[in-house]
């Protein structure tokens, strides 16, 4: 598998758009995923839900493995909304994932979990729910590749964006200029500016992209907004 660096050059960050296929037609996961990639997605954000950590079920490693066979190149960003994140590290790695993002709230031994994910060769992400304070993730930030700030309660697509999560992104960005910060939940053309100004550089957008007649246009306008905000903040430094 090709290696997928998520950073660029010596200026630090690059904006990436990773649509979530949660609200797409899951009976045709391959075509839906390919359509998003063909229309400019930088990566696929794959939401794994186990019915315990969140009150919903999606799919697991067998489905990811099948999708990987049909899509050998794309970056698979796994958002593991599961109660036992340690249990799925190896199956998800063997299925061909590139990044394993677990929830801090579900981790029993966070450092050990980070070590285990790294050992597989996957990038490591930590996600926090809206009710979790950003300070709780700070001790781990220098050991991971990405922090995911949830802007909805995890479990369902199509919810309203929680703009009061923006201070979490601002705080992380001020302390960690080179960190990949992902935002997920209710993100679309009307909410992207807030995320971009706060400092997010990895943008998950589900419903806004998958239900659009013109996903290429939606993704390129999301990207444009974030790139402008990154450039502006670099000029201000
Ligand atoms: O993690 C998620 C829900 O738990 C989804 O990735 C997220 O909600 C994306 O969908 P939308 O953009 O429709 O909110």
From TrEMBL:
Keywords assigned by UniProt, alphabetized: Carbohydrate metabolism, Isomerase, Metal-binding
Keyword Repeat attributed: no
InterPro entries found in the cross-reference section: Aldolase_TIM, Ribul_P_3_epim, Ribul_P_3_epim-like, RibuloseP-bd_barrel
Protein family (similarity comment): Belongs to the ribulose-phosphate 3-epimerase family.
Top-rank EC class of the record's enzyme: isomerase
Species per Swiss-Prot/TrEMBL record: Limulus polyphemus (Atlantic horseshoe crab)
UniProt-listed PROSITE patterns: RIBUL_P_3_EPIMER_1 (PS01085), RIBUL_P_3_EPIMER_2 (PS01086)
Record's protein name: Ribulose-phosphate 3-epimerase
Matches recorded under Pfam families: Ribul_P_3_epim
Cofactor(s) annotated in UniProt: Fe(2+); Zn(2+); Mn(2+); Co(2+)
Top-level taxon of the source organism: Eukaryota
Record field: transmembrane: none
Gene (name only): LOC106478845
HAMAP family from the UniProt entry: RPE
Catalytic activity from the UniProt record: D-ribulose 5-phosphate = D-xylulose 5-phosphate
NCBIfam families with a match to the protein in the record: PRK05581.1-4 (NF004076), rpe (TIGR01163)
EC number assigned by the record: 5.1.3.1
């Amino acid at each position: 598998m090709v290696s997928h660096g998520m950073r660029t050059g010596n200026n630090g960050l690059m904006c990436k758009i990773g649509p979530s296929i949660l609200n797409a037609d899951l009976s045709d996961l391959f075509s839906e995923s390919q359509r998003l990639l063909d229309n400019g997605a930088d990566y696929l954000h794959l939401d794994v839900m186990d019915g315990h950590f969140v009150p919903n079920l999606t799919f697991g490693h067998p489905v990811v493995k099948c999708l990987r066979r049909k899509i050998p190149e794309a970056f698979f960003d796994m958002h593991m909304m599961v109660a036992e994140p340690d249990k799925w590290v190896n199956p998800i790695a063997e299925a061909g994932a590139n990044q394993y993002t677990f929830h801090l709230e579900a981790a029993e031994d966070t450092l050990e979990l980070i070590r285990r994910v790294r050992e597989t060769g996957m990038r490591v992400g930590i996600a926090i729910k809206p009710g979790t304070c950003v300070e709780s993730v700070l001790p781990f930030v220098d050991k991971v590749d990405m922090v995911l700030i949830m802007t909805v309660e995890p479990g369902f697509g199509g919810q309203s964006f929680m703009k009061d999560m923006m201070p979490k992104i601002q705080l992380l960005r001020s302390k960690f200029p080179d960190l990949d910060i992902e935002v997920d939940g209710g993100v679309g053309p009307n909410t992207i500016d807030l995320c971009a100004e706060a400092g997010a550089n990895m943008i998950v957008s589900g419903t806004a992209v998958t239900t659009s007649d013109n996903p290429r246009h939606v993704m390129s306008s999301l990207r444009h907004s974030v790139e402008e905000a990154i450039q502006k903040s670099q000029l201000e430094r």
